[in-house]
Design goal:
Helices cover 43% and strands 20% of the residues. With 360 residues, it is α+β, with helices and mostly antiparallel strands.
């Protein structure tokens, strides 16, 4: 890595080229660092309510719960497990936030730049798996995670050691230049690899980045080898998955609901529910907005303590990621339903209809 290169009649040492590259990457290192530093400081300094699990506000658990519908590689099960085990959840949120804080600080100051860059690659990977599906217009979370992943790979390879604490440490202790751990973890010097080995390492990381970024883009939106689509989980249109339906002879209906699509920015609202006899299309029972809004709190049994399906002013309200067992009392007294198959229909404020068959 110490050879000279001639360009347009001028000879540059690789060390000088490395220094110029580091200066050129200064903005990348700072911005990558600030993104994660900002995430950490918002929670620990400027918006501590995000870590306040006891203050009654929407702390970070609510954000993680909204990730569940579209989370990849089974991570929705991990999130669900954490949401039901408070101590593990809170420790996880604190650790994640601390990692963001320190990785961001290390990149901004250029302290052990490469290990900090590697950490941000890991953070970007996790954030892509959890939140990459969100963003109705520009898949915002995918864009953020993809950009951070690529910037992390670049800083891992090149170091970006200009105007850094790594350079200051090297100036104070020149012997660090001979330490393999410093060459791999710091950003001041080239990696301790031959030109050919460095090229192979860089190309491996490049193809990993291409596969990860293009693959997730294709999964979320198509437009690579398939037509554009809105994603397997819509980030804009709410959807309720209904299961475990039970119908009693007196007309009591019990079912489980999961708001498994839509924007986290606004909840979904169910204003009208009907029980229909599919044999003749007649409405057997009906719960209008007034009846739904009058349901007692005991009619809802939520799976989690954070994002909750709840009784709203005009019906049943469900934020993204919420799950609950819902009990609808008989819509009329002295109702005796004959045996057979019925269909329960939930109608939302924007005209969506979700159904589940019920057996009596």
């Amino acid at each position: 890595m110490g050879s000279a290169t001639s360009v347009n009649g001028s000879t540059f040492s690789v060390d000088r080229g490395w220094r110029l590259a580091a200066i050129g990457l200064l903005a990348v290192r700072f911005v990558q660092g600030w993104i994660y530093w900002g995430g950490g400081t918002r929670r620990f300094i400027y918006g501590p309510q995000k870590l306040d699990a006891w203050g009654g506000g929407h702390w970070m658990a609510y954000k993680f719960q909204t990730a569940m519908p579209g989370a990849l590689l089974g991570t929705e099960h991990l999130v669900s497990f954490l949401l039901q085990h408070f101590v593990l959840l809170y420790v996880g949120v604190i650790v994640f936030s601390l990692v963001e804080l320190f990785a961001g600080f290390m990149l901004i100051t250029g302290l052990l730049t490469r290990i900090a860059a590697l950490t941000t690659i890991g953070l970007s990977f996790v954030l892509m798996l959890l939140f990459g599906w969100q963003g109705a217009t520009c898949i915002d979370e995918w864009t953020m995670a993809a950009s951070n992943f690529a910037m992390g790979v670049t800083l891992l390879l090149v170091g970006g050691g200009a105007y850094s604490l790594d350079n200051w440490l090297l100036a104070k202790k020149p012997g660090l230049a001979q330490k393999g751990w410093f060459r791999w973890m710091g950003g001041s010097l080239p990696l301790p690899l031959s030109d050919q080995a460095y090229k192979k390492f860089a190309l491996v990381l490049f193809w990993i980045a291409v596969a990860f970024i293009v693959g997730t883009y294709s999964y979320y939106r198509g437009s690579v080898v398939t037509p554009f689509h809105g994603g397997p989980v819509s980030p804009s249109k709410h959807h309720w998955s209904l299961s475990n339906g039970r119908l009693q002879g007196d007309g009591t209906v019990t079912f489980h609901a999961y708001v498994d699509a839509g924007t986290p920015e606004a909840p979904s609202n169910v204003l009208h529910v009907t029980l229909v006899d599919p044999r003749n299309g007649s409405v057997v029972e009906e719960w209008d907005s007034a009846k739904l809004a009058a349901l007692p709190k005991t009619a809802l049994k939520n799976d989690y303590d954070y994002q909750k399906i709840h009784i709203g002013k005009y019906g049943i309200t469900g934020p993204v990621g919420s799950k609950a067992t819902i009990i609808l009392p008989p819509a009329a007294s002295d109702l005796k339903l004959p045996a057979g198959t019925y269909t329960l229909k939930l109608n939302s404020v924007n005209g969506s209809v979700w159904t589940i068959p019920l057996q009596r």
